[in-house]
Amino acid sequence: MGELLSVLQLGNPVLRQKASFVENINDEHIQKLIDDLMATVVKANGVGIAAPQVAQSCRLFIVASHPNSRYPNAPEMEPTAMINPKIIAHSTEIVKGWEGCLCVPGIRGLVPRYQAIEVEYTDRNDKLQKQELTDFVARIFQHEYDHLNGIIFLDRLKSNLDNIITEQEYQKQIINNTQL
């Protein structure tokens, strides 16, 4: 089990940097970072976390979709480390969905994302993986991928403040099935 890391908050300059390519996946520091990110995302009740969110500016994130209080309809999947990821193709269909971020606590945004993406990444065992991701898992990947490029989900809202809601209001209106 990894150690819990502190998650940076919006405004920290590391969150706006383009992360560096991971040269040696088998490096002890990278392997420990993967374990620590997995422990941190579980403890934070998140569905994904990127290395820049814990002040490590490298191209690595975890996708860990599972139903929880923040995302009750999330599909269950094994937490997966994705190193030096790329989006190699995407659908033309763009869908809006509510997103939050561990770096922006208490705020949600209705963010447009590709509905389906084809991705490539190296796993923690240094094996190249190719996958097609759809719906919520595609959304997580795109959200975390943005973190590697210094982009926060709020940047995707095109200054439309009607697409921002507090976490408390989201829980009341969306989770409890009342309409916005």
Summarize the structure in words.
The protein is 22% helix and 30% strand. It contains three helices and eight strands. The strands form two sheets. A five-stranded antiparallel beta sheet has the order 1-2-3-6-7, sandwiched between helices. The protein has a three-stranded antiparallel beta sheet with strand order 4-5-8. The protein is globular, with a radius of gyration of 16 Å. With 180 residues, the chain is α+β, with helices and mostly antiparallel strands. The protein has one domain (13-175): Alpha-Beta Complex (Peptide Deformylase).
Spatial strand arrangement across the major sheet = 1-2-3-6-7
The helix content is 10-25%
Q: Please name the CATH topology.
A: Peptide Deformylase
Structural class from helices and strands? alpha+beta
Query: What's the total helix number?
Result: 3
Shape: globular
Distance separating the two termini: 40 Å
CATH superfamily: Peptide deformylase
Q: What is the highest CATH level, the class?
A: Alpha Beta
The major sheet is characterized as:
5 strands, antiparallel
Number of domains: 1
Rg (C-alpha, Å): 16 Å
Topology:
Blueprint: H1 28-43, E1 48-50, E2 60-63, E3 80-90, E4 94-101, E5 104-114, E6 116-122, E7 128-134, H2 135-148, E8 164-166, H3 167-175
Antiparallel strand pairs: 1-2, 2-3, 3-6, 4-5, 5-8, 6-7
